[in-house]
Amino acid sequence: MSLAPLLDQLPTKAIRHARLGVNVLFFTNGAIFASLLPRYPEIKADLGLTNAAFGFAIAAFPVGAVLAGLSAGPLVRRFRSSRVAIVATVLSSLGILLAGNAPAWAALAVGLFVAGAMDSITDVAQNSHGLRVQRLYGRSILNSFHAVWSVGAVMGGLLGAAAAGMALPRPLHLSLAAVIFSLMAVLSYRLLLPGQEPAEPAAEGDDRQDRHGVDVKRSGDASGQSMAKYGLLLALVMIASAGALVEDSGSTWSAIYLAGPLEASAFMAGAGFVALQGMQFVGRILGDRMVDRFGQRAVARTGGFIVLLGMGFALMFPTVIGSVIGFGLAGFGVATLIPAAMHAADGLPGFRPGAGLTIVSWLLRLGFLFAPPLVGAIADSSSLRLGLVVVPVAGLLVMVFARVLAPKAMPTD
Asked: What backbone phi and psi angles, to 5 degrees, belong to 73?
């Protein structure tokens, strides 16, 4: 048997370099913002801010992301995903630098607003470029990029914590972080794919799956086609938002839930978030192989079931250990959801290149903006335990909407 067909499918050196370049972008995107988080307590204390004032300043980040997010698609089409991702990364690091050294509340809010706006543009651009590389590989690799983002976030947080522990001045710490991560992003440009984003208009009116496997049915007229494409987009937004809701519930509420109603120690209170992030990283490392073997639909449905079962039992029978395990299972269950929704949205027929991805990413930011108030409102009116019921509900929604995802692995021919 000839090995030529197999050798033809192997990624070339240029494509492998492009994958490395995208990994650098995801790593720096995760590290830049996380490097600031351990300095929040001293920023709040130095500026003499109340909890409410500090909360409003922090909210400037998702507000900037929501307002700027829809500009990402046109920018990518005009200037290339590689260039947009790198420029936005550098500007995001400058926003974080301003926020970390803000002399007053207004400067803190402005810095976070700029960082959030640039982060949303980077997010779309780096995922768009990652999907270009994935198509050249002929198999799923997008989840591995998001796993690298998780590594970057952990590294940035650890470096920030070390700097805070050593009482390293914030201007020095954040200036070093801005220079290092910006330089990494700029140097990655030589590794990335050349040329404009590929325009792949979809033919109208065919019974088929789109180029990423999303089911597309024949519609009798233009209005039917329009309703179908926006219906698919809405389903993908629901899947991505369910993943965001679970992630945010772990990062925002897990420590408060464990330390409060369950009276966990300070160490165990932080274990819920660590379990969620750690298992999400594991899920993303394994995610590409699972998607290639079983398809996006089966992986998403199984993940939704794991979230429903894991957090459902944890909330029904509340214990510290059980809740930590529940958050860990939830992290594993949602590991592939946001990459899956972005992957599918990027290939929706009837949208200009990058438009579907941009819309899903933008609406996903709304999910991150409104998830904490939703859980908090339920908790204030009843209990935080009841508020966290949104986590298993999110798992159930994924099981329902996953039908729009690819039923089998992406073709490799």
From this structure: -60, -55
